[in-house]
């Protein structure tokens, strides 16, 4: 299968899951903070760390080799997480002159996202080593 097709299929699934997270946030009445974007970006960071940790220790034994990596990392997790929505939400806080919330959201997202990638990689290192 063509690599573009793996990415497209994973991306469609990931974007659909992200849309579902947005609908769930609305359904549960979560407001005052971009909870859906925050959640998918942090969960996506943890999942990316787990995936990369797996690939680092098991190589392409994931099943499907390069195709699985393209589907899962580039497609699914790339479609699930969203930098553009994250950037827009920060810009909206800035336009509302809510600098504290903009800085808190940006800082927490970046620091927690990085921490979760590292935690995911560490988990795989412990599990698979």
UniProtKB/TrEMBL annotation:
Subcellular location: Cell membrane
Topological category with respect to the lipid bilayer: Multi-pass membrane protein
One Pfam family named in its UniProt record: CRCB
Alphabetized UniProt keyword annotations: Cell inner membrane, Cell membrane, Ion channel, Ion transport, Membrane, Metal-binding, Sodium, Transmembrane, Transmembrane helix, Transport
GO biological process, one term: cellular detoxification of fluoride
Activity modulation notes: Na(+) is not transported, but it plays an essential structural role and its presence is essential for fluoride channel function.
Domain of life assignment: Bacteria
GO-annotated molecular function: fluoride channel activity; metal ion binding
Residues annotated for Na(+) binding in this entry: 78, 81
Transmembrane segments: 36-57, 69-90, 102-124
Signal peptide: none
Gene Ontology cellular component list: plasma membrane
Catalysed reaction equations from the record: fluoride(in) = fluoride(out)
Record family assignment: Belongs to the fluoride channel Fluc/FEX (TC 1.A.43) family.
Function: Fluoride-specific ion channel. Important for reducing fluoride concentration in the cell, thus reducing its toxicity.
Name assigned to this protein: Fluoride-specific ion channel FluC
């Amino acid at each position: 299968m063509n690599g573009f097709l793996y990415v497209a299929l994973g991306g469609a699934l990931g974007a659909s899951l992200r849309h579902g997270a947005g609908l769930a946030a609305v359904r549960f009445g979560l407001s005052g903070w971009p909870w859906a974007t925050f959640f998918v970006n942090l969960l996506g960071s943890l999942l990316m760390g787990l995936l990369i940790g797996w690939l680092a220790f098991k190589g392409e034994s994931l099943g499907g080799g390069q195709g699985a990596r393209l589907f899962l990392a580039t497609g699914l997790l790339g479609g699930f997480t969203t930098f553009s929505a994250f950037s827009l939400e920060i810009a909206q806080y800035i336009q509302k002159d809510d600098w504290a919330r903009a800085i808190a959201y940006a800082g927490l997202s970046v620091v927690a996202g990085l921490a979760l990638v590292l935690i995911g990689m560490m988990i795989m290192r412990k599990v698979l080593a």
